TrEMBL record:
Domain Large ribosomal subunit protein bL25 beta: 103-185
Subunit annotation: Part of the 50S ribosomal subunit; part of the 5S rRNA/L5/L18/L25 subcomplex. Contacts the 5S rRNA. Binds to the 5S rRNA independently of L5 and L18.
Protein's UniProt keywords contain Lipid biosynthesis: no
Function comment: This is one of the proteins that binds to the 5S RNA in the ribosome where it forms part of the central protuberance.
Keywords: Ribonucleoprotein, Ribosomal protein, RNA-binding, rRNA-binding
Biased composition (Polar residues): 1-15
Region feature (Disordered): 1-22, 190-210
Name of the featured protein: Large ribosomal subunit protein bL25
Length: 210
């Protein structure tokens, strides 16, 4: 769901150090090196509190938030990217946005339900976990829901099959394959062997009748 007009807030501190040792010291002190940038704003190095960032990231990367810069100036941003390793936040990128200008982002797909085909021997094969969409910041969904409960063996789900929220435009190719229900190779091989055996028996029966 979009966040409406409510925004989270994250306070920053100026960052001047770029050496590996300085960045490491920041992280040890519970802060994350970050940068905020936009079409009308040069990249500005900052740092944010790791615990506060963790709270914000839980709401989804497409949730708009106010980044408080030096001097108390608030800048509306989205979390464009972040790096994490072994449970430690390494870096974050914040993109300054305009509430009146559509932006393109990739949003996670939430596959909901249990595919009917998996109950008859099929396997859900997921090819994509995100979709690229475009919308105003306030209309961006945190996730995109995809109901797969009606999918049978052999069925395919494409980007064009997804029902998007109002005011959201699909940017990913409509024919892009997201998921499918396939037969496991072992089962498929057994079925082929059974079919071949059946054909051989039928052929032998035909020869015996002639």
């Amino acid at each position: 769901m979009a966040n409406g007009n409510k925004s989270n807030q994250l306070t920053t501190e100026p960052r001047t150090g770029t050496k590996r040792s300085e960045l490491r010291k920041l992280r040890l002190n519970g802060r994350i090196p970050a940068v905020v940038y936009g079409s009308d704003m040069e990249g500005t190095p900052v740092s944010v509190d790791a615990k506060e960032f963790k709270k914000v990231i839980r709401t989804g990367r497409t949730e708009m938030l106010d980044l408080v810069l030096e001097g108390g100036r608030k800048v509306p941003v989205l979390i464009k990217d972040y790096q994490e390793r072994d449970g430690q936040w390494l870096h974050a990128d914040f993109l300054k946005v305009s509430k009146n200008k559509p932006i393109r982002v990739r949003v996670a797909i939430d596959y909901q339900g249990t595919a009917a085909g998996t109950k008859t021997g099929g396997i859900l094969q997921v090819q994509e976990t995100e979709l690229e969409i475009e919308a105003l910041p306030d209309d961006l969904p945190s996730v995109i829901e995809a109901d797969i409960s009606g999918m049978e063996v052999g069925d395919k789900l494409t980007a064009g099959d997804i029902k998007l929220p109002d005011k959201v435009t699909l940017i990913s190719p409509s024919e892009e394959l997201l998921a499918s229900i396939v037969i496991p190779r072992a089962v498929e091989a057994e079925n082929e062997a059974a079919d071949n055996a059946g054909e051989a028996e039928a052929a032998e029966g035909a020869e015996g009748d002639s």
